Structures are given as structure tokens and as C-alpha cells.
Amino acid sequence: MNETATAPTAPLRARAEIDLAALRANVRALRALAPGAQLMAVVKSEAYGHGAVPCARAAVEAGAGWLGTATPEEALALRRAGGLTPERVRIMCWLWTPGGPWREAVEADIDVSVSGMWALEEVTAAARAAGIPACVQLKADTGLGRNGCQPGDDWAELVGEALRAEAEGLVHVTGLWSHFACADEPGHPSIAAQLTLFREMLAYAEGQGVRPEVRHIANSPATLTLPEAHFDLVRTGIAVYGISPSPEVGTPADFGLRPVMTLAANIALVKRVPGGHGVSYGHHYTTPGETTLGLVPVGYADGIPRHASGTGPVLVDGKWRTVAGRVAMDQFVVDLGGDEPPPGTEAVLFGPGDRGEPTAEDWAQAAGTIAYEIVTRIGTRVPRVYVNASP
Ligand SMILES: *Cc1c(COP(=O)(O)O)cnc(C)c1O
Predict the structure, then answer these.
(1) Fewest CB atoms within 10 Å of the CB: 26, 34, 288, 312?
(2) Residues of the chain with pLDDT under 50
(3) Residue 281 known to be catalytic
(4) Of 139, 204, 281, 300, which one is the catalytic site residue?
């Protein structure tokens, strides 16, 4: 990830300011909401666009005992970054494909998720070659219909073979786990059904002799709304970054969370134009009368959704403006309604929202998506500027 130590006020084209004090406070708030469970900070995909290593370090400083990633490469990169040693933090990854770096993961003391027999076979072979037992977490599909082992015969076979490998000293079954489909829709009937099936699949595995260190199913929405789903560990991603999983769950402030990322750009040009002037590709906006236009130098290559053409909100000089016409690859335009702020004036696309700026959730609504996608897609051309880095 493109990092810079430059002060956040430096005149960069654009920057994503990452407030690590907010991140640490979010981790502490989440730990207080799930006091009986350990906390895994999910830092996949560069910590949802915030930068994996600085965010992982800050989360550990605030008491996260686990880090979670999707891919093994992400998990290995955390171990290599320094400071995130097995003594300090457990790391788990769950998105494996055949031929993945099982041996490297075993040697780096990373907990690996196994959803099916092919994966158990590959990880036991790697453990045998490395001469070190693998830490394996068996994933149950309790209803998401995505990754995970089906209940019934498939689960019985996977549990049986994992116990055989454990008896041979090739694996430790460190966890039993699952993932919700609809936890961001409180009251959805699938939530209770998944919890019931999870308990049944746990009881079966434990009855066969599995002694997991951790049993877990809660993502951010379940951590925020469903204490009975906390078990031994909660896996929080979006909430660590101070964003609510969905408006239905509540606002970040409802849970004592604060958005970590502020995305801003410096206006590149302000000019006066007559009425009837087409703006940006396709002329989907035409100035209603004489006005001023401001050029905001970020576009879809930076992760600004093209679907927010004509709708995305931006704070300029204390006023909300709207993307005029199409978002282009590197830039978009706002109608400044006759105001003439000097070039270089800051345009804030989103932030915590308490200085009048829009939030990532506002952009999600403008683009017809979820706030997860807004922050995660901010591109590598936008430098991350870390503030409040030391605890
Ligand atoms: C991404 C992910 C999470 C975190 O989800 P949030 O809704 O961001 O908290 C947890 N578990 C798994 C398996 C994931 O893929």
C-alpha cells in the first residue's frame, strides 16, 4: 500500500487520512461489546483499503488477539511485516485454493481454514513435509451457501479425518467456525436457523473428540447486535474501521464507533462558465445558468464509483456539492454555484461526518452499494496518510 509520512495538510492531489487513534478506540469499543470473547480484527484486502500493516499493528495495540485475512498471501505478509509475531498475535486465513502456500503458512504459525477434504489432504501433506503440526480450523456451512463444509455426511467425514490427522500429530484442530448470511438484517429468520445448526455441528464435532480453542461465527453485525452469537471469538471487519455494516443495524455512533478514513482531494481548477454548458463525458449535466465549476482530481481509477455520477456528495468550503455529470477515470466536476474558492481548496468526499462532511455510507447510498465497497476500493494511487500512529 502506498504510504506516506507527509503531514495530512500537505498539498497532495488526494489522500486517505487514516486515524489510527479512532481505529484503536473502535477495537476497544468492540471488545467492550463482546466482553466474553476474544477479538479478531479482519484486515483482509489491505484492511478494507485502510492499509493492512498499520491497521493490524494498531488493532493489536488495542487488544485484538487475532488478525484475520482472506488469502494466505495476506496472512504471510502480516507475519513478514515485523512485530506481528506468533507470541503477540494469532493470524488466521480462510480463502484457500488447491496448490496454495500451505507449508509456508504452517511454518509461519498461521491458523488455516479447511472446508473440505481436498484442503485437509493438502494441509496434512504440508505439515508432514514441514515436520510441524498445522493449526486447522474446520469451517461449517450453516446456511451461507458459500465456503464451508455441508452438515451431515460431509461434516462427519471432515471431522473424522481431521481427528485422525490430529492423532497422527499432523494437525491441531484449533477452531470450529462458520459465517452468517444475513446478520446485517436483524431479525432475519436465517440468523436463528444458522445459530441452531452451528450449535448442532459443534456438538457433533465435540462429541467425536474435537477440543477447539475457539468457536466463532460472529462478523461485525452479529458482534453489534447478537450477543448469543459471540461464542469464544468475534471476527470484526467493517466495525473496526468505524463503519456500520448497514443502516438497519444502526449508525456508527450508536455503538461508539468512529470512521477511520477521511478521503479528500485538492481542487485543481475553478472556473466560471455560462449557462447551458455541458459537463464531463456524455454531457449528462448541463449548467442551469452562469456558475462556477470545480475540478476534483480523483476518479474511478482511484476507486470513486462511476455509479455515483450525478449523485456523489462532496464538502467544499462548508457546503455540500454534488458530482456534476460523469465521474471520469481521474477526475470529476462539482458545480460550485458561483462560489470561487481558490484552487487547492480541500474537497472532502467522506470522513467521520462530524465536521459536516459526507460519510462513506452517504457515498454507498449515492452509488447504490454498501460502505464496505466504498472504502475497500480506494485505489493505490491515493496515498494513505496515517495520523495518531503512536498509542
Ligand atoms: C470479511 C469477513 C469477516 C468480517 O466481516 P465484517 O462484516 O466486515 O465484520 C468475518 N468473517 C469472514 C469469513 C469474512 O470473510
Answers:
(1) 288
(2) 5-6
(3) yes
(4) 281
Tell me: the pLDDT tens digits for 131-163? 999 999 999 999 999 999 999 999 999 999 999
pLDDT tens digits for 360-384?
A: 999 999 999 999 999 999 999 999 9
Q: How many CB atoms lie within 10 A of CB 28?
A: 15
261 is in an annotated binding site: no
Contact residues of ligand 1, CB 6 A cut-off? 42, 44, 70, 94, 179, 219-220, 235-239, 245
Annotated active-site residue 204? The verdict is: no
pLDDT at 9: 53
What is the 8-class DSSP label of residue 240? Answer: G
Q: How many CB atoms lie within 10 A of CB 174?
A: 21
Measured distance CA(187)–CA(248) in Å, rounded:
11
C-alpha cell at 311: 449523485
Q: Is residue 171 situated within a structural domain?
A: yes
Pocket test for ligand 1, best of 219, 236, 257 (most atoms within 8 A of CB): 219
Q: What is the pLDDT of residue 6?
A: 47
Instruction: Give the pTM.
Output: 0.97
152 falls within a domain: yes
Which among 211, 244, 277 is the end of a domain?
244
Where do the H-state alpha helices sit in the chain?
20-33, 44-49, 52-61, 72-80, 102-107, 117-130, 153-167, 189-208, 220-225, 360-367, 371-376
Cβ–Cβ contacts within 10 Å for residue 220, how many?
27
Share of the chain above pLDDT 70, in %: 97
Residue with CA at minimum distance from ligand 1 atom 13: 179
CATH at residue 144: 3.20.20.10
Question: What's the domain count of the chain?
Answer: 2
The range of the structural domain enclosing residue 111 comes to: 20-244
Statement to judge: residues 220 and 108 lie in one domain: yes
- Which ligand 1 atom is nearest residue 179's CA? 13
Q: Are 226 and 31 in contact (CB under 8 A)?
A: no
CA 237 / ligand 1 centre spacing (Å): 6
- Distance (angstroms) between ligand 1 centre and the Cα of 217 equals 10
Ligand 1 geometric centre to CA of 268 (Å): 38
pLDDT reported for residue 11:
66
